[in-house]
Specification:
The complex is a heterodimer of chains A (171) and B (140). Chain A has 171 residues and is α+β, with helices and mostly antiparallel strands. Chain A is built from four helices and nine strands; from the N terminus they run αβαββαββββββα. In chain B, strands 1, 2, 3, 4, 5 and 6 form a six-stranded antiparallel β-sheet that branches. Chain B is elongated. The termini of chain B are far apart. The chains are: A alpha+beta (171), B alpha+beta (140).
């Protein structure tokens, strides 16, 4: 059982994650930057679910299959091992995932045209059914993870700075 | 035949009992002393004049804490955020923060959080939140 006190306490890695998730981007107007961000998310196959201009916020999701060969192979291998022991062991594998992104931006100081853009990616995974001997494991168990892969964030911000350029020059 | 009548009458009595006990309690929506106490430690007043700036600092603080911002209502000053917590990310923490101006140069910030549908009533939790928020407010 986790201690609720820790829910609102900064973790040692929070500064590192903040640096990973934020960039400073120049744009003349906040709406321009927000629509450029929405365009990038759309390019990446996301659906924009929520937007708020006054707070400079966007939330987007995309649904994808979460099937991986390695998991299927492990599942088959364990099933074969189970056959030797004369029980049916079927490990639940990842079936489906929802990848979501929340983007927030704010001007660095009131007069400037520089904005701090921060995006957070995370995913929810749904598992398939399985079996352990005579007991069956129902499908649909959920798990969630934050994405801290630096490459994903770098790619996003590279695309965003391009998109801002296109937006300014109306291409 | 007699047995069936007996069972039917028994069911009627059971039904009567159940409707009698499902009456909502009279003090269901009454304000208790505990509620006032909870409200007081969920609320802090800061010397700030810009509601939008405060809202952004709240969003930033929540993101620093690993929360996912779900909804923002800027004119109202309302932020809803959630995060998975606990062992194996099996638990779910949901927080709502409300920012409203108090006078000309003060902001009243109220936060409340639930963990797995149960409200968090530990003052220490809110203290931690306001400490983090303070860092975010005065660093931006």
């Amino acid at each position: 059982m986790p201690k609720p006190e820790s829910f609102f306490q900064l973790s040692p890695s929070s500064a590192k994650h903040k640096a990973l998730q934020s960039r400073i981007i120049e744009s003349s107007k906040d709406t321009e930057l927000l629509s450029a961000s929405a365009a990038v998310l759309q390019d990446l196959g996301f659906q924009i679910e929520e937007s708020n201009t006054a707070a400079g916020m966007l939330r987007a999701v995309k649904e994808r299959s979460a099937r991986e060969y390695s998991q299927e192979i492990t599942r088959g291998f364990v099933f074969l091992l189970g056959l030797f022991a004369q029980t049916a062991i079927i490990i639940p594998v990842d079936l489906h995932q929802q990848i979501a992104a929340t983007l927030v931006m704010h001007p660095i100081d009131n007069s400037s045209s520089r904005f701090n853009v921060r995006i957070v990616f995370y995913r929810t995974i749904w598992k398939s059914d399985g079996a352990s001997g005579s007991q069956s494991i129902p499908p649909g168990s959920q798990s969630m993870e934050m994405i801290y892969n630096a490459k994903i964030y770098q790619q996003f911000f590279a695309k965003l700075s391009k998109s801002v350029f296109l937006e300014i020059h109306q291409i | 035949m007699n047995g069936r009548v007996l069972i039917l009458s028994f069911l009627f009595i059971l039904q009567a009992c159940s409707t009698g006990s499902s009456k909502p309690p009279a003090n269901l929506l009454a304000l208790t002393e505990a509620q006032m106490k909870i409200r007081s430690y969920q609320t802090r007043v800061f010397d700030l004049s810009d509601q939008q700036k405060t809202l952004r600092a709240v969003v930033s603080a929540l993101m620093d804490l690993g929360f996912i911002v779900e909804r923002v209502n800027a004119p109202l000053g309302l932020v809803t955020a959630a995060k998975f917590a606990g062992s194996g990310n099996s638990g779910f923490v949901e927080a709502t923060v409300m920012i409203k101006p108090k006078g000309d140069n003060q902001m009243e910030i109220r936060a409340n959080a639930i963990f797995n549908t149960k409200p968090i009533e530990d003052p220490k939790v809110y203290q931690n939140f306001f400490t983090t928020l303070q860092k975010s407010l005065f660093s931006s």
